Amino acid sequence: MAQIILLEDERILREDLTEFLASLGHSVQAVGSIAEFERAFVPGRHLIAILDLGLPDGDGMDVIERLRRDNLRLGILVLTARISTQAKVAGLQSGADHYLTKTTDMDVLAATVDSLARRLDLGGVSADWVLDAGKKQLIAPGLPPIELSAQDYTVLKAIFDGQGLSVSKKSIVAALGEDFLSYDLRRLDTQINRLRRKVLEATGTDLPLKTLRNEGYQFYGAVAPR
Q1: Structural domain tally of the chain?
Q2: Which are the contacts of 121, defined by CB distance < 8 A and separation ≥ 6?
Q3: Which residue among 120, 138, 164 closes a domain?
Q4: Which of 37, 103, 126, 157 could disulfide-link 44, Cβ–Cβ 3.0 to 4.6 Å?
């Protein structure tokens, strides 16, 4: 079943929807504002977002547009009181996969969520590693995010940009803004070892990063598209 994040500001409706979706076997994290959503949302863990549009601290349409700009593998379902055709078209054009009104029968909502989960075809848990640029976090498949330093993030981004191919140490050093000829490569080795240790301690999972002797590094895990 799907890992769902629900953004709905009406408390009673939020509780009813959470209970209903949980009864279907989904794991639901419910929040009541955009600010709470931003704090709670974890790319790679939440694979379906159910969003209201009229919220106390902004418009859900803006949330959808931001999520789509990040190119995350995420199903987005709008559940709103806005019933006009114009509003529906705007919601779908902004990046929503489905647009339902709050008068929609719960069976239709359940079928829509199930259909979206099947289309994602991940059984509710992403198999991808995610590098979150906005929050400077690394997210292992189905696990909590790992906070990264600025250098951690820069090194990983350079390696992730290799798209599964070998990335030279020279390329990584350049991404760090350093001169390769004067850079002590032992610093990079130390950085990589710290990253491996950080990931292992935080998740119990090894970082799928291969050291290629005299060449560089290769990330062999599945990476979410960005």
Answers
A1: 2
A2: none
A3: 120
A4: 126
What pLDDT, on the 0 to 100 scale, is given for residue 225? 61
- Give the range of the structural domain holding residue 98, as residue numbers without chain letter: 3-120
The CATH number of whichever domain residue 8 belongs to comes to: 3.40.50.2300
Domain of 156: which CATH number? 1.10.10.10
> How high is the mean pLDDT in each 10-residue block of the chain (226 residues)?
91 95 90 94 87 94 90 89 91 92 92 85 62 87 83 95 92 96 94 92 85 89 71
Q: Give dist(CA 43, CA 67) in Å, integer.
A: 9
- Do 155 and 64 belong together in one domain? no
Q: Does 57 share its domain with 102?
A: yes
Q: Do the domain assignments include residue 98?
A: yes
112 shares its domain with 27: yes
Taking the CB of residue 171, how many other CB atoms lie within 10 A of it?
17
Same domain, 26 and 111: yes
Please state the φ and ψ torsions of residue 132, each to the nearest 5 degrees: -90, 110
Non-local CB neighbours of 54 within 8 Å, separated by 6+ positions: 9, 60, 80, 81, 82
Q: Are 174 and 128 in contact (CB under 8 A)?
A: no
CB contact set of 115 (below 8 Å; sequence gap of 6+): none
Of the candidates 82, 107, 104, 102, the one whose C-alpha atom is nearest the C-alpha of residue 92 is: 82
Is the backbone of residue 26 left (phi > 0), alpha (psi -120 to 50) or beta? beta
pTM reported for the whole predicted model: 0.58
Contact 130, 138 (CB under 8 A): yes
Single out the residue of 66, 71, 77, 75 nearest to residue 100, CA to CA.
77
